[in-house]
Amino acid sequence: MSTLDPLNARHAIPAIAQVIAGQDGLPAVHVTAPAAEGLVYLHGAHVAAFKPHGAPNVLWLSQKSLWQPGKPIRGGVPICFPWFGPRQGVPASPDSPPHGFARLLAWELQSIQQSTHGVTVALALTSSDATRAVWPHDFVLRHHVTFGPQLVMTLELTNTGTSPLTAEEALHTYFALADVKQVQVNGLAGTRYVDKADGFKEKPQMGLITITAETDRVYLDTTATVTLDDPIQRRRITIAKDNSRNTVVWNPWIAKAKAMPDFGDDEWPGMLCVETCNVGPAAVSLAPGQTHHMTARLSVAPLP
Ligand code: BG6
């Protein structure tokens, strides 16, 4: 008997959703909903594919990604939690991995349900001795992923402990593009951002964004919908969001791509991250028993 059999016995929907052995045998839920095909790994609750209406994957994945417990997947939608980037005030160590521990751990598959909106996969990560050893809080983090005409991802954090907690969170979404140098990013004009590629200086965004160099920006206090126009693929990706006060825009460009072992040297023109998040001063603070939801809604349409 395969280790996937009990999961399928409990959750599979014939011809619609199955648990499969994904890359390097990692379990993943494969969805063939009427409006879209999708794939979400239990490792990191990591969405790896979204193909609406038979279109190619909207999400980018590196050919060099690792597919291993304890390592992040490069591409798709990693979940950053409970901190974003390097952990503040703590030297980098295996206990304080960049972007937190949620993307490194196996999540529990809780349910798969079909509705008029599509097929929703729900996964959960619950605090354990291992998480409390590095981050002293009790929590349940749930990820609800709906594959339909849109990809809708809701990250739900509940403080199950007896003291307040504060956490950063991000849906670190990698989009597949024909050539990032030709893409236009709209929706953030007039918004201030922290330029991590230029000494963390705070700057105003003048007009639309084009990518002409390493780009690593945390846009501040924005709930705006962002669009990515890809003139070569002739498509517009729209990223709408709820309860998220930051948007991060990231492309490593030439040197940073070369420096990352799990990122192909020549892959950087094919991707751009536009991340739905709450980071820094916008981190989520919850009293015991409180819950917070953050949602990203991704859709694709032909360029007008
Ligand atoms: C982005 C950060 O969100 O993620 C960048 O703003 C970082 O600074 C990038 O380099 C990738 O991070 P990682 O840990 O997946 O290599």
Describe the structure.
The protein is mainly β and 304 residues long. The chain is 7% helix and 42% strand. The chain contains three helices and 22 strands. The protein has helices at 5-11, 129-134, 253-259, and strands at residues 17-21, 27-33, 36-41, 46-52, 79-80, 108-115, 118-126, 139-147, 151-159, 165-167, 169-171, 174-176, 184-186, 192-195, 201-204, 215-219, 226-230, 235-242, 246-251, 271-278, 284-286, 291-302. Strands 5, 11, 12, 14, 15, 16, 19 and 20 form an eight-stranded antiparallel beta sheet that branches. Strand 1 and strand 2 (27-33) form a beta hairpin. The longest helix has 7 residues, at 5-11. The protein is globular, with a radius of gyration of 19 Å. The model has no long low-confidence stretch (mean pLDDT 97). Bound molecules: 6-O-phosphono-beta-D-glucopyranose. 6-O-phosphono-beta-D-glucopyranose is lined by residues 72, 85, 98-99, 172, 196, 216, 248, 250, 275.
Supply the key terms.
single chain; 304 residues; mainly beta; 8-stranded antiparallel β-sheet; 22 strands; 7% helix; binds 6-O-phosphono-beta-D-glucopyranose
